[in-house]
Amino acid sequence: MILRRIALYVGLLVLLAVLVALSLIAGRVWVPLSAWDFASSDPRWAIIADLRVPRTILGILIGAALGLSGAALQGYTRNPLADPGVLGVSAMAALGAVLTLYYGATLASIWVLPGAAMLGALIGVALLLLLSGSRSSLVTFVLAGAILNIVASAGISLALSLAPSPWAVGEIVDWLMGSLQDRSVDEVRLAAPFILAGAALLLTTGRALDALTLGEAGARSLGISLRRTRWTLALGVGLATGAAVAVSGVIGFVGLVVPHVLRPLVGARPGALLAPSALGGAVLVLAADILVRVTPAAGEVKLGVAMAALGGPFFLALLLTLRRRIA
Amino acid sequence: MSVLSCQDVRVTLGGRSVLAGIDLTLAAGQVTAIVGPNGAGKSTLLACLAALRTPDSGAAHLDGQPVTAMPPRALAQRLAFLPQTPEIAWAVDARTLVGLGRIPFLGARGGGSADAAAVTQAMELAGVSEFAGRVVTSLSGGERARVLIARALAGEPEWLLADEPLSGLDPAHQLDVAGLFRVMALAGAGVVVTLHDLTMALRLADRVVVLAAGAVLADGAPVDALTPAVLRAAYGIEARVLAGAQGPIIDVVRRAG
């Protein structure tokens, strides 16, 4: 089992390294390795340094945040359908961000939008945990998530329909679709501390999530404080997902797909799934972001849209295999 | 010798008194069976003893310390609890599941060789070593029950509290599990189980506590506690205690009335 885990980590890291290289090279303008010369005044260097490096770092950070959040939520709820997107946490973060766009508050400070997104995500997770109660069955949890999604999308629709200017509508819609296009070092600086803090919190929940394999009574009898686990999880998912949504918009399904694919490879133990899911999320988002960049189209396909196109069928397949368990 | 006790434990749920002042002092090295009709408060009492529920008044103590005031991890190192409907959320293999019993002992860096040895020993004791690599969801009910008991044994607990550990098991597996409890008690652990099978209580336990309507109706050696009069008062049944070849048998005749 230990050898298998090492192999998994090595495999994911190698894959990630290859994707990082590809992410710096690939795009509308291909920058082969021969052009990578700090001393040269090759104009393509600016593309790498100012656009592709931040974009790649963001891809890794956001993918890791979403993959890790998904794995932690699934472990806590003992529910393989849990994901920040499916459970409305991302939508609540988006609502927070959209409200700042609507009121034009983003001009006041660059911290307004990410702050509102994280606040939205935190409120989202807290509501989710409160709505589903301590005995969170699969059904109540998914329903609580559905309620959050409905409330958040109603709020977003309201903001859109009442938007003061077509410019605001355009900005909101563009942002909602989720993308890593034209992000700069500023976004990296904005998101990285919160994503890293959230991820650090989530990684501490591994043992509690393992114990929860035996249910809530089982976990408590093993000396686990469910209260502390719940709030660590809420804060971790709120920070990581909120910061990710703040700089990229809504990118769904990463938290759903990645833990599900990796679970059999770690022997299904939820604590062992956390770190690989962060790596796997980074791999998935980076790969998808490279694909949308090189896809020939008039404009760049939005990453959030591409991910939904991939994730939708996956969610359906997962639902079909789980149907017996849910019924 | 470790002592688990409770003093005047009262629990009210939804306006109904579930435990109406229970006083018990349980000694280690014994198997104590708690019996009583459905709704008598057996599970609630066990949950209070395991610090999974805080009584409305009164308290449970382990060696003089209130269990709800003990650090959860310190309590978990000494006391293992098997819930009535055990949940296994993920398709982990049996050895991983048994390993969860070591969680209260793990340091910051995870398990060491002592933890691995305890898991191996617990699996051997429970007779589940052969399932080590198998996914628990593929095991039969009886096999899974024994893996869950091995999980409790892996913590080498001074106290094992098991809520209806024999329900849903066939007679052969019931005997296996009952034998395990005896082995634990002989090794010095305190074993407290709730049971519905009265004959099993008579034969398995060193001491039987009969609960009815949240109060202790009888408490003592099995043959003294499980008398026809007590059974009539607790369950509303006419029953006889017969002499069987392997020990006494409780023969339930009819509802009293």
Automatic annotation (TrEMBL), chain A:
Q: How does it sit in the membrane?
A: Multi-pass membrane protein
- NAD as a keyword of this entry, yes or no, is no
Query: Which InterPro entries does this chain map to?
Result: ABC_BtuC-like, ABC_transptr_permease_BtuC
What domain of life?
A: Bacteria
Keyword field contains Nucleotidyltransferase = no
SUPFAM superfamilies membership: ABC transporter involved in vitamin B12 uptake, BtuC
Which residue ranges does UniProt annotate as crossing the membrane? 7-31, 51-73, 85-105, 111-131, 138-160, 231-258, 270-291, 303-322
Q: Where in the cell is it found?
A: Cell membrane
Where is the major localization of this protein?
A: membrane
CDD domains (UniProt xref) = TM_ABC_iron-siderophores_like
In terms of Gene3D superfamilies, this protein maps to:
ABC transporter involved in vitamin B12 uptake, BtuC
Family the UniProt entry places it in: Belongs to the binding-protein-dependent transport system permease family. FecCD subfamily.
**Protein name (Swiss-Prot/TrEMBL):** Iron ABC transporter permease
What lineage, starting at the top, does this entry show? Bacteria, Pseudomonadati, Pseudomonadota, Alphaproteobacteria, Sphingomonadales
Automatic annotation (TrEMBL), chain B:
Q: Per the record's keyword annotation, is Repressor included, yes or no?
A: no
The protein's UniProt keywords, in alphabetical order, are:
ATP-binding, Nucleotide-binding, Translocase, Transport
Q: Which SUPFAM superfamilies match?
A: P-loop containing nucleoside triphosphate hydrolases
Q: Which residues form the ABC transporter domain?
A: 4-238
Quote the Pfam families the UniProt record gives. ABC_tran
The record's InterPro entries line, in alphabetical order, gives: AAA+_ATPase, ABC_transporter-like_ATP-bd, ABC_transporter-like_CS, P-loop_NTPase
Q: Which GO terms describe its molecular function?
A: ATP binding
What is this protein's function per UniProt?
Part of the ABC transporter complex HmuTUV involved in hemin import. Responsible for energy coupling to the transport system.
Under which name does UniProt file this protein? Answer: ABC transporter ATP-binding protein
Species: Sphingomonas echinoides
